[in-house]
Amino acid sequence: MGKGLLFNFLPNIVRNLESWLRAVIRKQLVLLLTVLMVFSFTVAACAGGGTAPQKEVEMTLSLSSAAFKEGDKIPVKYTCDGQDISPPLAWDEPPQKTQAITLIVDDPDAPSGVFTHWVLFNIPANVRQLREGVPPQEQLQNGALQGKNDFGRIGYGGPCPPRGAAHRYRFTIYALDKPLDSKAGASKKQVLDAMKGHILAQGQLTGTYQH
Question: Which residues have C-beta within 8 Å of that of residue 156, sequence separation ≥ 6?
Fold first, then answer.
C-alpha cells in the first residue's frame, strides 16, 4: 500500500521539481543577460575613450580660389616652375564658436608618401581670405603662425612633382574651437595632433599639377 501511495505522488513531485528548475533557470538567465549587458556597455564606453577615431566634424567649410577651380590644374605661377607663391584662397562663414582657423596643403601622390607644402595655423576667426603671396615668415601681421613644410622651410612651398603623372594638391581648412598652443615652425603632425578634439568644421579644395 505504501509503495502505491508513493507512485501516486511521484508524478506530482516530478512536476513540482520541473517547475522549480525552470524558475531557477529563468532567474539565472536573467542574471546572465544583465551581466552581459553591463559588460557590453562598459566595453563600449572604454572603446569610446580610447584611440578609435571619433567623428568630431559637424559642418563643412567651402574653400575656393580665384586662381583655379576644384580638380583643375594649379597655374604655374604658384609652383616651383613659376614664382612659387601661395595662391589666393577664400572660405565661407565658419561655425559661431570658431576661435581659430588652420590651413594645411599637402600632396598625397608624392613618391615618398604624403608631402607637406604648407602649414598655417591660428588664423583669426574673423578672417575669410588669404591674398596670394603670403610671405614666408613665422608670424603674419594678423597673428597667424606658419609651420615648417617638407622642403624644410617656413611657409608655402608650391607644387614641384617629379616628371610623370599629375599629382593632387589638397588645400584643407579647419575651423577650431580654440587657438593652438603650437609654436611657429611646427610640423604638420604636431599641428594635427594639437587640433584633435577641437575641429568644428573643415573643407577642402584640390588642384593638380605635373611637369
Answer: 84, 85, 86, 105, 117, 118, 134, 136, 149
